[in-house]
Specification:
By secondary structure, this protein is α+β, with helices and mostly antiparallel strands. It has two domains: 148 residues, Hotdog Thioesterase (Thiol Ester Dehydrase, Chain A); 140 residues, Thiol Ester Dehydrase, Chain A, CATH 3.10.129. Strands 1-3-4-5-2-7-10-9-8-6 form a ten-stranded antiparallel β-sheet, sandwiched between helices. A hairpin with a 3-residue loop joins β3 and β4. α2 runs antiparallel to α7. The longest helix has 18 residues. The two termini are 34 Å apart.
């Protein structure tokens, strides 16, 4: 996990003007090139995919990527039917996602995905999403997927047919340095180090049945919705005001690293903990955890199901 950081970062309330925020363009990436063998697709952003802010949000970006990977696999002969017949599945373990010029209703997008590397029981899949005409980057992502037995959820060796047809094409996304890395690593370790840092905000919810997928677990994209909801509750309640972020400011996501630790089922009681790690002149750095009860597994104490580090551009109202 890429947890290196700029040790010069300190929490600050310094802000940027609204005019400046409106003109800040996503930085161009040098790792957005795609191999010739990559699977290519296209889509148009639909009205129901766009949030109140006028663009897609984290959960929808993750859905774009999941759908793209599913279509890429099917194009090689490995559809959902093939996986069901072989009683195996792919389960995401980590996702690194850099976000740029997020689309709104009617925007045409060009998408590409490929596998950059294989291990015995896991694969690393790369993604690029760009605007079709201007080629401005919408998202660059890299996911670590585990290959598991569909019945037990335990890792199993990847079928030779899969590795042979998909191939490992390289072109991996470069690591992203974390800001406020010391605080993020303390939260990542948990235990006494985490106990010294109180959450900025907590959001309680119950996992709903309609949020589960065919594997009977909460779909990984839904966690993106929960993270987004938890962060915007903290913003709306003024709980990030100490860092100079007002309730009516807009937060534009720029980077997420999500670690999926364990799956959840409908009915799980969930707490989304949000920690505001600090503020740079242009960005807010956030750590979040999704904690759930483990009564169905016979555990008495809640455990962490997901951890996420993120950076957001602050656009004052």
């Amino acid at each position: 996990m890429d947890a290196t950081g700029d040790q010069g970062d300190i929490p600050t309330g310094a802000g940027i003007t609204a005019a400046h925020a409106a003109t800040v363009a996503p930085r161009q990436r040098t790792d957005a090139a795609t191999p010739p063998e990559a699977f290519a697709d296209a889509l148009q952003t639909r009205s129901y995919e766009v949030g109140r802010g006028g663009t897609i949000r984290l959960g929808m970006a993750l859905r774009y990527l999941e759908g793209l990977a599913t279509r890429a696999s099917a194009a090689l002969g490995f559809s959902h039917v093939w996986y069901a017949e072989h009683q195996v599945a792919w389960v995401v373990r980590e996702m690194s996602l850099a976000l740029g010029d997020l689309p709104t209703i009617g925007d045409d997008l060009a998408l590409a995905t490929w596998v950059s590397d294989f291990k015995r029981v896991q694969a690393f899949r790369e993604y690029v999403v760009a605007r079709e005409v201007s080629q401005r980057l919408v998202a660059r992502a890299r996911a670590r997927w585990a290959y598991v037995d569909a019945a037990t959820g335990r890792p199993t060796a990847i079928h030779d047919a899969l590795t042979g047809r998909m191939g490992a094409l390289g072109y991996a996304m470069r690591p992203h340095p974390w800001r406020f890395a010391e605080a993020a690593q303390a939260l990542q370790r948990g235990g006494a180090a985490q106990a010294a840092l109180a959450p900025t905000s907590e959001l309680a919810l119950v996992a709903r049945g309609y949020e589960a997928d065919v594997h009977q677990h909460i779909n990984n994209c839904v966690y993106g919705d929960w993270l987004d909801e938890g962060l915007h509750q903290a913003l709306a309640n003024g709980q990030i005001a100490a860092l100079g972020v007002a309730p009516d400011d807009a937060l534009r996501p720029r980077y997420y690293h999500i670690e999926y630790i364990r799956s959840l089922r409908p009915g799980a009681h969930v707490n989304v903990r949000t920690y505001a790690l600090g503020r740079r002149s242009r960005s807010l750095v956030i750590w979040q955890e999704i904690v759930a009860d483990d009564q169905e597994r016979g555990m008495s104490a809640p455990t962490v199901a997901l951890r996420a580090y993120s950076e957001h551009l602050v656009a004052p109202h």
